[in-house]
C-alpha cells in the first residue's frame, strides 16, 4: 500500500452535491470525507441512489461539487484530467462496434493525439495485460461481455493512469466471470501500482478488491462507516475461505442494513439497500 495522502492519493473533504433541474432540487451528497492514499484500493458501497456515482463523477471531473474539496493526486479533478492521471471505467463502457478491439483500445490515445506507432505499442501491451492477446482483430460483437469489459479496462490502461475510477465495471457479468475479473484486476493493480476507487453493489467484490470499504448512507449521501480490510496486497481466491472474510462480510452487512440484517425474518421490510 502507498504511503500517506501527502504523496497525492484521492482526497474528498466535506464534499456536498446538490443537483438542480428546473424546479427539482436533489441533495445527493452532504459532508462526504474520505482519503485514499496513493497505491491504495478502496470501494464505495451503499443503497441505490446514495450518491456513489456522483462522488466518482466529481473525482472524474464530470460534475463539480457544490461544496467541499476533491483532489486527485493532490490537484483538482480538472487539472488531473488535463494531465491524464486518471481513467474512468463504467459498466457501460462503450466499444465502437465498427472498430476492431485493437482500434477500440487505441481510442483513448488517439483522442489524446498520440502518434500511431506509440499508441499501437501501448494498446498491444494493455491487451496482453488484460489477457486478450489473440483478439486484437475481433469486433466487439464477437467477444463475450466479460471480454468487452477487459477491453474497456485495457483502453483505460493505455493512458497509464495513476488512478483507476471504476463504476460497477463488472456489474453486468455473471458471478464466475466477475470473480475471475476481480482477481485479474488485482494482478493489474499490482503490476501498475495504480490507486483504485471502485463503486460496487457487491459486498464480496468490495472485500476482494479493497484495503478500505467506505459505506455510504442515503438521502443525502454521506460516508457512514469505513471498514479496513487487512488482507494486504497478496491476495488469492483462498481469501474467501479465511474466517476474516466472513467477519468483514458480516460487518459490512451490519453497516448497510443495521444490526437485525443477518437474521431478519422474511416478513420484515426490504432494507433500503435493495430498493431501486
Ligand atoms: N444529473 C443528475 N441530475 C439530477 N439528479 C441527479 C443526477 N445524477 C444523479 N442524481 C440524483 O442524485 C442522487 C444520487 O445518484 P447517484 O447516481 O450518484 O447514486 P448511486 O449511489 O450511484 O446509485 P446507483 O447505485 O443506483 O447507481 C439520486 O437521487 C439521483 O437521482
From TrEMBL:
One of its GO terms (molecular function) is ATP hydrolysis activity. Residues 12-243 form the ABC transporter domain. The keyword Transport applies. The keyword Nucleotide-binding applies. Gene3D superfamilies: P-loop containing nucleotide triphosphate hydrolases. It comes from the Bacteria. Keywords: ATP-binding, Nucleotide-binding, Transport. InterPro entries: AAA+_ATPase, ABC_transporter-like_ATP-bd, ABC_transporter-like_CS, ABC_transporter_ATP-bind, P-loop_NTPase. Belongs to the ABC transporter superfamily. This is NitT/TauT family transport system ATP-binding protein. It comes from Kaistia soli DSM 19436.
